[in-house]
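Wed. Picked up where I left off yesterday with Ribonuclease HI. The coffee machine is broken again, so keeping this brief.
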Amino acid sequence: MDVMIQWTYMTPKKREVVLTSDFLPADEALRLAEDFEKTGRVKKLCFIDDNHVVWSKKELNKLLKEMETEPHDIIAYFDGGFDNETSQAGVGVVVYYKQNNGQYRLRANRQLDALKSNNEAEYAAFWFLMQTLEELGVHHLPVIFRGDSHVVLKQLSGDWPCLEDDYNAWLDRIEEKMNELGIQPIYEPISRKQNKEADQLARQALEGQTITSMMELTEKG
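Structure written out below (tokens, as returned):
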């Protein structure tokens, strides 16, 4: 989690000056804030995250302590598939994360109705991934998102426009949830070969196999 420090500084001539820093990792920002306070000239100090949420020093310290026992260092994969004959869709997600000094992998899939194409299944898969992250308790953290649907990732990053109303509705829903959870997304398009796990889960969903599993990984993974 990155934050910007904003502090009101009292000059030797008793003039108030509001200063701001660049975005820094939250723990580093807290250490710097403590140094600022040692000058005895800090009248007011707060922290602002990427979503413009303002935190006091006490609130930010509490948040970081809570995050130590919550999922972090997250890499999330997604994929969607569609069967034209049955009009069924399958979505699959894989989430790698650390928690309580352990490394874990969560795998999940679902079969979906009421979708129209393989493209829409990819948007639905990303939405399912957002729901999975919310259930896992992920919030106010950077998350690396990987998938072979470059269209979805490029549109979410703002690099490519989306001209279809149906797809825009999915994007709006995803971005709203992203903001609600305070997730700082890092989008990394990958090849189909690199997305085998999520692809397999989507295929299994199309075959009627519902999977939800979590396992702790050994050092060898």
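Quick read: The first helix runs from residue 26 to 37.
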